[in-house]
What does this fold into?
Amino acid sequence: MNIKSKKAIIGSLLIFSVAFSFPFQHQKEDITVPLNVEGSGSSDVVVEGCIGDCAACHSITPYEAKSILDVKFDVKKILNIDIKRGYFEIIYENSEGKKEKINLFFGKDKACREVILLDE
It folds into this structure.
């Protein structure tokens, strides 16, 4: 074996050892990494999923909101959509011309008139 082939073997081993020395967790598809947020007590609060900017991941168009709500509610026109804590607050006009408010949750499969927040 000459010196060039020894250098090539050593170089390739070095490249492979560096490449495989880092963890490959980022390649798994179903990993959820919780975000630790400093809590007010002695233990930390663990937040999974949303970190505050709901509009970055969740959106709904007025057309989509009307088509979802029109199944069970009398919706003539969507007037306003606001994003709240885990739901879309939708103000719409019914066929009688009255404004009504309904909260559609981000999963777009559940709606309610009033959301009761237990932490306030």
